[in-house]
Amino acid sequence: MENRQWLLRRRPVRMLRDGDLELAPGDQHERALQAGEIRVRNLLFLYAPTMRNWMSARDASLHMIIPLGAPIQAMSASRIVESRHPAFPVGSRIVSTSKWSEFDIIDAASAPRLIDEGVTAIEALGAFGLNAMTGYFGLMRVGRPSPGETLVVSGAAGSTGSVAAQIGRIAGCRVIGIAGGAEKCSWLRNECRIEEVIDYRSDDVSSALKSLCPTGIDIFFDNVGGTMLQAAVDNMAKFGRIILCGQIAGYNSEDDDLPAFRNIMRVIYGSIRIQGFLFGDYRDEVPEAIADLIAWRQSGEIVTREDIRTGFETLPLHFNALFEGTNRGTLLGLVDEDAYSSS
Ligand SMILES: NC(=O)c1ccc[n+]([C@@H]2O[C@H](COP(=O)([O-])OP(=O)(O)OC[C@H]3O[C@@H](n4cnc5c(N)ncnc54)[C@H](OP(=O)(O)O)[C@@H]3O)[C@@H](O)[C@H]2O)c1
Fold first, then answer.
1. How many A from CA of 256 to the centre of ligand 1?
2. pLDDT tens string 220-251
């Protein structure tokens, strides 16, 4: 069984560049499994912006740092080819965190999740995947929307943001999405049925928010940080909530962090709650989230789109799309056509 993997050779400076990663023979794939381990063939990888943080050497006591020379890690969908755990039979499929390798060994203790019959690997990482559930938990559990409230979402045409925005519409909010470029804005308006859209590449976000939210923003779902966060802070309503989901504008930065926002007194006078969160905080509620996402997708309340790039050898080439904004929906790296199978 041949195996290949992508290793971190050099810490990226800003965008990922040729030579930062190296394609190498895979290790471990021929060793015998220990009890509780499963061997998988990877079918599909989710490109997650936070993988860029894992490649940096910045202080990160709360998240993983990939050592130089070690394999890139990613959320993956895989087919089990050998198993020493009764709950994960050969032939079934899982979502887990895996190496960027063709084959890998997964410890069942790391809580891989079986993919249900009838669901493709693409759906398991896309429409019902980690990003969709992040939009769900962030808005519903952290933001706690009420009908009639004004919700603003940054990165609104992305994998996570588009689900948060549409769930906001379902919850009865007046939703304003911020995204880059005419195509994304029209997709949000026409397909996702988001009431108001701000194109941050051509509009001034702060003044657009001021005129669109005369009574202030009740909930801000932030995927971007930096100037977007500042514009929202400047326009929050009393008792508003700021949901910190991501800070993608800072992941390629050489500084430790994006500058924090100005005007903290506004947060105090506004009795505003700012809360970061991780998808994993709500792991126990995954079945409920997936059931809701499936129902909303079937009824047409939520639309999603996937941007599938093909080829194991070319995996690194597509990573920067997340930062250039050229992805159209959930960015996925397909390495095996089996990812289209629903059983
Ligand atoms: N807290 C959690 O557990 C969790 C889980 C998953 C994801 N996240 C976060 O959610 C965010 C979105 O991730 P995703 O995987 O769904 O990616 P995505 O939104 O599908 O793709 C990334 C998008 O971010 C926008 N972007 C990139 N750089 C930007 C910049 N400097 N300023 C403004 N917009 C920028 C681009 O859209 P435009 O074309 O509109 O600029 C790009 O298409 C990320 O911050 C990620 O870290 C958090």
1. 18
2. 999 999 999 999 999 999 999 999 999 999 99
